[in-house]
Amino acid sequence: MTKTTNPAHEVVAGNGLLHRRLFLTQGAAVVGGGLSLLAAQPVDAEPLAVPPWMKAPGTHMSAYGSPSKYEAATQRFVGGTPNVVGSGVSFTPHHKLHGTITPNSLHFERHHSGVPDIDPAAHKLLIHGAVRRSLTFTVDSLLRYPTVTRIQFLECAGNSGGNLSPMPPQAPCGMIHGLMSCSEWTGVPLALLLEEAGVEKGNEWVLAEGADAAAMSRSVPLKKLMDDAMIALYQNGERLRPENGYPMRLFLPGYEGNMNVKWLRRLKVVNAPTMTRDETSHYTDVLLNGKALILTYPMEVKSVITSPSTGLALKGAGVYEVTGLAWSGLGKIRRVEVSADGGKTWGQAALNEPVLSKSFTRFRMAWHWSGGPATLMSRAIDETGAVQPTRASFIVERGERQNYHNNSIQAWAVAASGEVSNVYA
Ligand SMILES: Nc1nc2c(c(=O)[nH]1)N[C@H]1C(S)=C(S)[C@@H](COP(=O)(O)O)O[C@H]1N2
Ligand SMILES: [Mo]
What we know:
Layout: H1 7-10, E1 11-13, E2 17-18, H2 21-24, E3 30-32, E4 35-36, E5 77-80, E6 88-91, E7 109-111, E8 125-129, E9 135-137, H3 139-142, E10 148-155, H4 173-177, E11 180-189, H5 190-197, E12 205-210, E13 217-221, H6 222-227, E14 230-235, E15 238-239, E16 249-251, E17 264-270, H7 277-280, E18 285-286, E19 292-293, E20 302-307, E21 318-327, E22 333-339, E23 347-348, E24 350-351, E25 361-369, E26 374-382, H8 391-398, E27 411-414, E28 420-423
Parallel strand pairs: 8-17
Antiparallel strand pairs: 1-2, 3-4, 5-6, 6-7, 8-9, 10-11, 11-14, 12-13, 12-17, 14-15, 14-16, 18-19, 20-21, 21-25, 22-23, 22-26, 24-25, 26-27, 27-28
Bound molecules: the ligand Nc1nc2c(c(=O)[nH]1)N[C@H]1C(S)=C(S)[C@@H](COP(=O)(O)O)O[C@H]1N2 and molybdenum atom.
């Protein structure tokens, strides 16, 4: 404890938002004016009792680890599509996680026809179409190429779609915004493989097809494949999980989840989009005038407060860390602002380093909650200058008839009781 600061001097926006300097420069233990950031209980100076787990050796090592049994409630929310075998989603419980990396066991899932059981020794990737020579690759042959490793998010176009319904869904943060995750992906740059095959001039599109029963396929601009795309083989240091595309998937940083074809088996170079089922019957954005946008790829600038959020009630007035995630499919996050008064005033949040392109950035904001009603919101701005829209402005522009690409601001209402609910502000 070196210096105390009067919180009155540190307030940066309405309803008790404090300057991010608190996190950046101080020990943050003492805010001043009698306000403590710490939730520890003062105790009399007496020795701690010896707990049972200190009285005998614990269990042995394990070959593959698993979380503490006390964390058994940290699970994906699994939902099916009625009457469609193998189709459904599972959501990452972001309100129970911290940092920016999603553990593989909690990465969200979206399958159109279940998870295929692929023997990697029997799986091949074919590159063909308008190329000088068609090529096939196995996992082993791909592993002989130079690799790239990047920390990047994956977000389904349908993420946060529930917030476009007429009434705000009263569900935990992860159930509303959990169709997104962030991993360290390692794989082979597509540009290397396409150069080897030799793309014939005038062919600017590539059909990507998966080896699941849906043979899910999408048309990808060649430019994106030559830019920062990879055939991902590893996820957070270990081989891809079956549900995330084992043994190989297409990874297109910043592009809507659906484009990231799992269980990738074929890339066909063509001269126009192939108008597959998945880019025509859905993954299109119906506008107010009834027309629809198709082939809308990048996931635009967005953020969400993960704590506090529905189900994470505040326990008494005092200083809290408001924290959440910000990301943009178009680059790095430049700034995140937080409001505690429903968007009337905003203060700048601290960003955890490193701030990476097309990746999750964790933001934090100190908030002195007076114990009265408050509405918390976050607004992200990316390096292109794009600003996350309000729900109202998103709807004016895009309408409510579709539920894709909703990057609008999430608002959480905090009641005097400390309970948090989802509101449209
Ligand atoms: N082959 C195949 N690829 C697929 C899908 C699929 O069902 N089959 N689902 C897509 C959708 S809609 C999304 S959002 C992402 C989800 O990836 P994940 O399950 O690894 O999170 O994969 C995409 N790639
Ligand atoms: Mo998706």
